[in-house]
């Protein structure tokens, strides 16, 4: 605690210089060097927020600009956002893939990838890089279960997404269209295979045969596929960072969801590791803050063991945010974890407040101020 307090005080002096810098023009691609990210030969700090909604709510370019401005003002460098929305009938807001009787069509029009072009332009205007996630484990905005329902049959096991030849071909088709459009766009920092892949999804229906090997094999195949069509951008899974230690008394360490963080981190076509942190949702209610400290430290240990960057790319509590995040930020700094992205950014737009799931951090709050202080210190870390 004392460590972060000292860093925050020194960080205040850094904010003016960081805020005064003009938003850089996106040039060059973010790469990795050992446990660090680099850009044009210099260190690149991944710090910022999630904004899954920015390309999905039918926002105007002016509203997108404000959303990214609010994130950039907190000292962010990076934003994670959704590059998917599977629908079975057209919608008035943005969607990226339309399914009709088992046939998918990627929407390249103004409500599809044309809309995502605007997301990239707005991020670029504020000097931000994007981590773009290409499907969802959950039913929000379509995701894996749409592939399964449309190609295998309604209500079939969720985990068939990872092994069925038809779902794999359809996913590759979507990825090929989306990724190829932005191969030469440096505003994209990285592609992610999926948001929080697990053996089970929103329906809870599984085959009973899915395990950590299932998802590791899928991640190896799909990350290699993206690398085959795009050698410019980094690739990650987008998973929660669950460990595979069956004897552990702690659920997120037991490997029961099909994720083996350490095995996945060793895949050669994955450039960095990701971890999420929601201790209360995971049943760690007795000391969620302390659990988070251990979780961050354990992922930093894996980072050092396998010599790849690891970021805490989602994290959140709904009570005592400032107190909890103060300790978690201190641990990120002291452990050497490569970077972090909070869940989630919020803005007050002309159309109203952006989605608030209880974790949202809006400008002019104490948590937003803490984010700003932390970003300054992390960016100054050597």
UniProtKB/TrEMBL annotation:
A single MF term (Gene Ontology): mannan endo-1,4-beta-mannosidase activity
Catalytic activity annotation: Random hydrolysis of (1->4)-beta-D-mannosidic linkages in mannans, galactomannans and glucomannans
InterPro entries per the UniProt record, alphabetical: GH, Glyco_hydro_5, MAN-like
EC number: 3.2.1.78
Subcellular location, record wording: Secreted
Residues of the signal peptide: 1-22
Domain Glycoside hydrolase family: residue ranges: 48-346
Family under the similarity heading: Belongs to the glycosyl hydrolase 5 (cellulase A) family.
Protein name stated in the entry: mannan endo-1,4-beta-mannosidase
Source species of the chain: Heliocybe sulcata
């Amino acid at each position: 605690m004392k460590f972060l307090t000292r860093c925050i005080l020194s960080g205040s002096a850094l904010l003016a210089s960081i805020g005064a810098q003009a938003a850089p023009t996106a040039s060059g691609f973010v790469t990795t060097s050992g446990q660090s990210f680099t850009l044009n030969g210099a260190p690149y700090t991944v710090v910022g927020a999630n904004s899954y909604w920015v390309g999905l709510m039918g926002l105007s370019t002016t509203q997108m600009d404000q959303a990214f401005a609010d994130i950039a003002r907190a000292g962010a460098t990076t934003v994670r956002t959704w590059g998917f929305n599977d629908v079975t009938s057209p919608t008035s807001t943005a969607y990226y893939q339309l399914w009709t009787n088992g046939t998918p069509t990627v929407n390249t029009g103004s409500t599809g990838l044309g809309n995502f072009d605007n997301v990239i332009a707005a991020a670029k205007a504020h000097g931000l890089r994007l981590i773009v996630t290409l499907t969802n484990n959950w039913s929000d905005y379509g995701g894996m279960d749409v592939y399964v329902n449309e190609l295998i049959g309604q209500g079939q096991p969720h985990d068939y997404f990872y092994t069925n030849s038809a779902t794999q071909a359809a996913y590759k088709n979507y990825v090929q269209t989306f990724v190829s459009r932005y191969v030469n766009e440096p505003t994209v920092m990285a592609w992610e295979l999926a948001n929080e892949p697990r053996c089970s999804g929103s329906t809870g229906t599984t085959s009973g045969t899915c395990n950590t090997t299932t998802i590791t094999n899928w991640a190896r195949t799909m990350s290699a596929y993206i690398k085959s069509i795009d050698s410019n951008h980094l690739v990650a899974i987008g998973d929660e960072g669950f460990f595979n230690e069956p004897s552990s008394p702690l659920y997120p360490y037991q490997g029961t969801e099909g994720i083996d963080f350490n095995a996945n981190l060793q895949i050669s076509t994955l450039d960095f590791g990701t971890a999420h942190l929601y201790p209360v949702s995971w049943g760690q209610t007795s000391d969620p803050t302390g659990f988070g400290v251990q979780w961050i430290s354990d992922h930093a240990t894996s980072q050092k063991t396998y010599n790849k960057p690891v970021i805490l790319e989602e994290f959140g509590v709904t009570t005592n945010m400032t107190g909890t995040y103060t300790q978690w930020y201190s641990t990120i700094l002291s452990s050497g974890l490569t970077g972090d992205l909070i869940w989630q950014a919020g803005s007050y737009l002309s159309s109203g407040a952006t989605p608030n799931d209880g974790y949202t951090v809006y400008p002019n709050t104490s948590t937003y101020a803490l984010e700003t202080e932390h970003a300054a210190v992390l960016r100054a870390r050597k």
